[in-house]
From TrEMBL:
PROSITE patterns documented for this protein: LRR
Cellular component aspect of the GO annotation: plasma membrane
Record-linked InterPro entries: Leu-rich_rpt (IPR001611), Leu-rich_rpt_typical-subtyp (IPR003591), LRR_dom_sf (IPR032675), RLP_Defense_Trigger (IPR051502)
Family: Belongs to the RLP family.
Location(s) in or outside the cell: Cell membrane
Record's bilayer topology term: Single-pass type I membrane protein
Keyword Iron in record: no
Designated name of the protein: Leucine-rich repeat-containing N-terminal plant-type domain-containing protein
Recorded coiled-coil stretches: none
Organism: Gossypium davidsonii
Signal sequence bounds: none
Major subcellular location class: membrane
Length: 725
């Protein structure tokens, strides 16, 4: 097409051409419309510098790079889209593009002042979208135009960086419809309430994580066109205005989470008939949940506040997809009418004071519920047998008062997390748990389970964490269990299982409590990706530690402590190259500590205390140089540092290399030679001192004579028979 010198319009879109533009492209000087977006073109853009008649230029979503100064001569441009490339340079090069109406620069490395001062002279500019660039503070820069000549309809600069003060240039704008200045540090400036007051056409206002403070104030008149308001993750305080429902009646999205708002939830929220997403989480709100809420709500999140009271029955007819009431002081029973919410996918009610049984009506949620968290309440009764949700992926019922056997979740084949820890559950761990092929996190600790560890657990090839500690389990450890934990398969399942469930603006990230390095931590989703382990501690397990370790190398935590295990410590444990916590204490293990364990370079907690181990402790090198006496105490036949008991010279050493243990702890020939040499040097030193100093010589001979006479009379009086005296 380079021969088409009079070509005015050229569009090559979504063709995925992988090439640089030919040099002859610069000869298409008649071009007015050029769209080569969504391809794989690369190289710089110097071929455009002569296309001065261009009015429309879209080269977005390619692999172009270079300085944007090449475009400063295209003064006829009305539309310019450079998004999703690798351009750099200062936006001041566009000062000459006085015909520009729409400027899109997102996802590059272009330097843009938050004030937009270099563009103040572009009187026709209406839209600027430049997300994910290099936003900076340019308050000290001087420009020929002090106030903007444009009237913007849409501005989006969300990214990062220090923006200085909130751009006062926007105080001159009255036609704004969309504003997104999220993730820019405006150094604690007061919230720009004037944005709402000045722009009656405003539809979307996003000021997320912008370091804003102060009170949120409503405009003097209602803004019926505003559909989205997100001021989350700032430092806003005071009360949420009571008239918010009257002044902003058309909102679809209202997110004021992660601030310091106090007081109650305004009753006028119920007047927002279009509201679908409401997020007041992580504030200091008090009082109860309003009895009147919008019936069209899909997501309702008031977690991490100070709300109290019961769940209002007026919520019965809502069409919620996600409900999060966790971390408040709500009380009462779990309402039976929740079973009528046929579309409910996420239900989080943890860390409250709910009591009573889990309602039977929950069985109606069989085809919708994916995520259930009722942990840390006072829920009692047994696990309902109808809990066999076909879509359920994550269940958290820990820290309650549930009792009886596990009779639920038989058909929940998509289950990824099952946390029933810290209850009063009894019976055996069911064999059918091996059918939950997607299970990655199994926590049954701190209950009253008995019987053996089912061998069917070995069929869970996605298993990442298993914690059955503090129960009454007996029998041996299934050898195949050591080969079940696999980082690769479990991580893939974790990422594809929908663990991070999102419904609208709502995202789920419930922590799991797991003990590592003798300390219990709560691990959230991002950290769980890198954690794997087995905790069988505090049971009645017997037999030996399995020696078969094939696909177990990436495990991080292994805890078999407080059981009745016997036999040696398997040398194969040295193959756990990534392990950080190894606890075998309080068992009946015997034999030596394998010297191969010295190769565990990430080990930061190690304990074999209170066993029947013998021999010497591992050489104090690498990570083992950090372990103190408490790691080995309680083994009567164990010696060596850091224990106070020293080993004999000829004693065996489990921590020395084989060629060293054959000769003992040290080279004996060297020892004898050094001993004789030291003895000779000592005698020579004494002789020289006595020769030089007469006084010391006289005292020396006096003491030698006195000692000799004392020995003589001692022997004469106490040892020799009387007939020899």
């Amino acid at each position: 097409f380079c021969e088409l010198r009079k070509l005015q319009t050229l569009a090559i879109i979504n063709r995925y051409w992988d090439a640089s533009l030919p040099e002859c492209f610069s000869e298409l000087t008649s071009l007015k419309y050029l769209d080569i977006s969504s391809n794989n073109f690369f190289g710089n853009i110097y071929v455009f510098k002569n296309l001065t008649l261009l009015e429309y230029l879209d080269i977005s979503s390619n692999s172009f790079f270079g300085d944007i100064s090449m475009l400063k001569n295209l003064t006829s441009l009305e539309y310019l889209n450079l998004g999703y490339n690798n351009f750099f340079g200062d936006i001041s090069y566009f000062m000459s593009l006085t015909s520009l109406r729409e400027l899109r620069l997102s996802n590059n490395k272009i330097e843009i002042p938050s004030s937009l001062a270099p563009l103040f002279n572009l009187s026709k500019l209406q839209i600027i979208h430049a997300d994910n660039n290099m936003i900076y503070n340019a308050e000290t820069e001087m420009h020929s135009v002090d106030t903007p000549t444009f009237q913007l309809r849409s501005i989006s600069l969300s990214c990062c960086g220090d923006g200085g003060s909130f751009p006062q240039s926007l105080n001159h704008q009255h036609d704004l419809e969309h504003v997104d200045l999220s993730n820019i540090n405006f150094k604690g400036d007061q919230f720009p309430n004037w944005l709402l007051e000045n722009n009656k056409k405003l539809e979307l206002l996003y000021l997320v994580n912008s370091s804003l403070s102060g009170h949120f104030q409503l405009p003097s008149t209602s803004r019926r066109g505003l559909s989205g308001l997100d001021v989350s993750s700032n430092s806003l305080d005071g009360n949420i205005p009571n008239e918010i429902g009257a002044k902003l009646p058309s909102l679809w999205v209202l997110n004021m989470s992660n601030n310091f708002f106090g007081g109650g939830i305004p009753i006028s929220i119920g007047d927002m008939i279009s509201l679908q997403i409401l997020d007041f989480s992580n504030n200091k709100l008090s009082g109860g949940i309003p009895r009147h809420l919008p019936m069209g709500l899909y997501t309702f999140d008031v977690s991490n506040n100070q709300l109290f009271g019961d769940i209002p029955s007026s919520m019965e007819n809502m069409s919620l997809l996600a409900l999060d009431l966790s971390n408040n002081t709500l009380f009462g029973g779990i309402p039976r009418w929740m079973g009528k919410m046929s579309g409910l996918e996420v239900l989080l009610m943890a860390n409250n004071h709910f009591e009573g049984p889990i309602p039977v009506e929950f069985c109606k949620l069989n085809y919708s519920l994916k995520f259930l968290d009722l942990s840390a309440n006072n829920i009692s009764g047994s696990l309902p047998s109808f809990f066999s949700f076909s879509r359920l992926t994550h269940v958290y019922l820990s820290r309650n008062k549930l009792k009886g056997p596990i009779t639920s979740f038989i058909n929940s084949i998509d289950l990824v997390t099952l946390d029933l820890s810290n209850n009063h559950l009894t019976g055996n761990i069911p064999n059918w748990i091996g059918n939950l092929s997607s299970l990655s996190y199994l926590l049954l600790n701190n209950n009253y389970f008995e019987g053996g560890i089912p061998v069917q657990l070995c069929d869970l090839h996605c298993l990442r964490l298993i914690d059955v500690s503090n129960n009454n389990l007996s029998g041996t450890i299934p050898p195949c269990l050591m080969n079940t934990i696999s980082n690769d398969s479990s991580r893939a399942n974790y990422e594809n299982s929908g663990y991070d469930i999102s419904v609208g603006y709502f995202s789920v990230d419930v922590p799991i409590k797991f003990t590592t390095k003798s300390i219990s931590y709560f691990y959230k989703a991002t950290v769980l990706t890198y954690l794997s382990g087995i905790d069988l501690s505090c049971n009645k397990l017997t037999g030996e530690i399995p020696h078969q370790i094939q696909h177990f190398q990436d495990i991080i935590v292994l805890n078999f402590s407080h059981n009745s295990l016997i036999g040696p410590i398997p040398p194969a444990l040295a193959d756990l190259s990534q392990i950080e916590s190894l606890d075998l204490s309080h068992n009946n293990l015997s034999g030596n500590i394998p010297s191969h364990l010295l190769g565990l370079h990430f080990l930061s907690f190690f304990s074999v205390a209170y066993n029947n181990l013998s021999g010497t402790t591992p050489q104090r090198s690498g990570q083992f140089a950090t372990f103190e006496e408490s790691s080995y105490v309680g083994n009567p036949f164990l010696c060596g540092e850091p224990l106070p008991k020293n080993c004999s010279i000829d004693g065996p050493s489990s921590s020395m290399p084989k060629n060293a243990t054959d000769k003992g702890f040290i080279d004996m020939e060297f020892f004898y030679a050094s001993f004789v040499g030291s003895y000779i040097v000592m005698i020579l030193c004494i002789a020289i001192v006595l020769y030089i100093n007469p006084y010391w010589r006289q005292a020396w001979f006096y003491h030698v004579e006195a000692a000799t006479m004392s020995c003589y009379y001692f022997v004469l009086d106490h040892i020799l028979p009387k007939r020899f005296r």
